[in-house]
Every structure is written in structure tokens, then in C-alpha cells.
Design brief:
The protein contains 7 helices and 12 strands. It is an alpha/beta fold. Helix 1 packs across helix 4.
Length: 226
């Protein structure tokens, strides 16, 4: 029933925190745009995967040319992003017309591995959802008004993507009206009465947000190459 695989790559962000005019998904690491690094991992995980690339409207043509110039010409749809992540993902979901396992992934998390993608797929098949998460390695304190208190970090999980779902669950959840708490797909699913099932993430699956992250990603990719 869920043999079809669709990855919605959310690349609707800008380069504000990166200090770049160019949206960060087009910045390069080891000479290759971040967006291409990300797509390569999904194609390596599943050669039959279909890609829905969500980009700022003004960069859709640039995205098309980038992928075409790098040999990606099949199983790809481009969609304009919205004002919120929720709307961007909803625009991508509008392209789904049959049952599938759907991955929703931040384009700028380009260091994920095919093993993580395959792990998410398998759990989503079995449980309906797979949300990658890693434990907190930092001490955590909770703010309470003007005071703060220590919180047990053993109870804290840091959430990543690709957040992966059976399509019927995800499509039903995105029929809800938007709420500010919908910062990721797991929150949307949970608000619709469905359980959030965590799966082991990867500590190297960082989100490229600031210039330092580019340097870290360069190091990680160089280490993997060696």
C-alpha cells in the first residue's frame, strides 16, 4: 500500500542569519550547493523516490536549472513556498495524489545519511510516523518568569528531519487551521490526535543556519570522504 516514496524538501528559507543575499540552500559546501547534497542522500536511499522541492517563488527557475544541470530530470516537482513552514509543507502536500510514505525534510539538513532515511521509512511503514530525534548533550534550564530551574536533560530529545509519515495521516492533519505551535509536522500530527513516534536520529544531521555551520559541514563531509 505504501510502496511509493515522496520526499518534500522544504527550501523556503532565506539567508538572513547566514548574512547572505542568496538563500542558504543555494550556498555551496565543497563546491556543491547545499540543496544538491540533500537530494543526493534521498536518491542514494531510494532510487525510485519522487521529489517535491519547495522553494521561494523567485528562486524556482534557479532551482530547476540547478537540478537539470546536475542530471535530475525525472520524478521532480517544484512548488512555491508559503509565509509559514506549515503553508510551505501544505503546498507540497497538494502534489500527493496516491498513498505513499512521505518524508518532510529541511533542505539545509544536508548531512543526513541514506541509513537514516531508510530507518525512517521502515518505522513509518510499521507505526505510521517516524520523527528523528537525538538526546540533549547540554544541561537544560527552564525559564519560569524571571527565574529558571534545572531540568532533567535525560527527558529532553532534540527533533530533526526527515519527519516521515503515512500520507493519509499527514494529509488529514494538514486539513487543520494553522496554529503558531505548528513549528514542525510532528506538532501538526499530534494536534490531530495521532501519536508522535520517535526514531533514532543522527548527531551530524545538523541544520545549516549560520556561517559556523558551513565550516562544520565542510569538516564532516571531508571526514566522510576520507
Amino acid at each position: 500500500m505504501y510502496s511509493k516514496k515522496i520526499a518534500i524538501i522544504v527550501a523556503g528559507g532565506t539567508g538572513q542569519r547566514m548574512g547572505s543575499v542568496l538563500p542558504k540552500q543555494f550556498l555551496t559546501i565543497q563546491g556543491k550547493p547545499i540543496l544538491l547534497h540533500t537530494i543526493d542522500q534521498f536518491v542514494a536511499a531510494f532510487t525510485d523516490i519522487q521529489l517535491v522541492i519547495v522553494l521561494p517563488e523567485g528562486y524556482i527557475q534557479e532551482g530547476k536549472e540547478l537540478l537539470q544541470n546536475n542530471g535530475f530530470t525525472k520524478n521532480i516537482v517544484f512548488v512555491a513556498g508559503g509565509d509559514t513552514r506549515f503553508q510551505s509543507v501544505k503546498n507540497g502536500l497538494a502534489q500527493i495524489t496516491e498513498s505513499a510514505i512521505v518524508f518532510v525534510h529541511d533542505a539545509v539538513r544536508c548531512l543526513l545519511t541514506p541509513a537514516l532515511i531508510q530507518r525512517c521509512y521502515q518505522q513509518a511503514l510499521e507505526k505510521g510516523s517516524a520523527i528523528p530525534a537525538v538526546s540533549s548533550t547540554d544541561t537544560v534550564r527552564l525559564l519560569k518568569g524571571e527565574k529558571n530551574e534545572l531540568y532533567n536533560r535525560e527527558s529532553v530529545m532534540l527533533i530533526q528531519t526527515p519527519q516521515t509519515f503515512q500520507s493519509d495521516l499527514l494529509l488529514a492533519a494538514f486539513n487543520q487551521s494553522y496554529m503558531p505551535s505548528f513549528t514542525d509536522e510532528a506538532n501538526v500530527i499530534e494536534a490531530n490526535g495521532q501519536p508522535v513516534n520517535l526514531v533514532e536520529g543522527e548527531f551530524e544531521n545538523i541544520k545549516i543556519t549560520r556561517p559556523l555551520d558551513l565550516a562544520i559541514a565542510e569538516y564532516i563531509l571531508a571526514k566522510r570522504a576520507n
